[in-house]
């Protein structure tokens, strides 16, 4: 099929490369000339495992990028993969989505064939039908259901494993208002749906919108509960990992997302949970459990720094922060717990030297005043203490011999020879 994707951010770029990889002709519509040049040159504009080689394989053939919305007229399906920035109260700003829908609608005004528009961005229930749909109808001059179809196809991509998540998903969700839209999506996803391990969920548009939020809210709440239990276990001098390993053997609970530690971050969990909380309040419902999940999560970085301060007076101390991205395998630092750790350390007067295998340049604008090291050992050299903020595998074999005092507080339970350290503290174990 011929596919167009509006937006070449993390989601748009990933699904464009993956759809080209399974045999479709794909064009990315993007306003950033630098991103367009990067994709057309066969390079990835973001750091994501498996993405660079797929773009290199298909760029110039079945994958290309352009600023011209008119290119959508030569495609059968358009995915809207546009950002919805979050306001202070957690509500979403649809300005970019509205602008993209307007441009898309105008381009489709001159198309005679049927066309499907599928929203891929994470939006609250009602957005696809009440915001995007009317804009498309107005600008294209075509009514939904009369040659123009509308759908919601939420993404479930994790940073670091996004390519694998798209090509080998647990589930694919189609939210549609017509049989025609559902049939088009089934044809598009046929190579992926052929996997026995992939479940297809076909539902209405509003349910599809909410499934994504419910999915992330459940996982975020599970992590916060695990961290709460980890905090309690530590107060009893018990190992939370041993406790939760046993709990995970219950098939009603499962062993996944049972690692306690510094908490969740990134572009999805914080944004989606906060948007759902704000949306619930707009509907007159007080989401107390989700509020508590966020409160527990936000307290973990302070607890980590408190533990370090039990052993190292932080005023004027040189502290190494290992890990800056919100999780291993990505350079994304959005809502990274490491940034909160740095803020707490800075507020208590510590001199910070930080290292991350790939994310330093993304953090530097946030904290231009701190020192950055090109290696973990370089960050640890002469340090009075260290914290592990991201569980990069590279840190498992790091040497702490160069520290002034080998005091380490671990927020991610990496592989460390505790006996070789003066002090080792696990955040929840």
Describe what this molecule looks like in 3D.
Helix content is 40%, strand content 15%. The longest helix has 31 residues, at 205-235. The protein is built from 15 helices and 14 strands. Helix 9 (205-235) crosses helix 11. The strands form two sheets. An eight-stranded mixed beta sheet has the order 3-2-1-4-5-6-7-8, with helices on both faces. Strands 11-10-9-12-13-14 form a six-stranded parallel beta sheet. 47% of the residues are buried. It is elongated and about 75 Å long. The protein has helices at residues 10-21, 33-40, 51-58, 95-108, 127-140, 162-167, 179-188, 190-193, 205-235, 240-247, 269-282, 288-309, 337-347, 360-363, 376-380, and strands spanning 2-6, 25-29, 63-66, 77-80, 115-119, 148-152, 171-176, 199-203, 318-322, 351-355, 371-372, 385-388, 407-410, 423-426. The mean pLDDT is 96. With 429 residues, it is an alpha/beta fold. GO terms for molecular function: UDP-glucose 6-dehydrogenase activity. The active site is at 268 (nucleophile). Belongs to the UDP-glucose/GDP-mannose dehydrogenase family. Pathway: Nucleotide-sugar biosynthesis; UDP-alpha-D-glucuronate biosynthesis; UDP-alpha-D-glucuronate from UDP-alpha-D-glucose: step 1/1. Substrate binds at residues 212, 257-261, 265, 327.
Oligomer: single chain
Biggest sheet, spatial arrangement of strands: 3-2-1-4-5-6-7-8
Radius of gyration: 23 Å
Q: Could you state the order of secondary-structure elements as H and E?
A: EHEHHEEHEHEHEHHEHHHHEHEHEHEEE
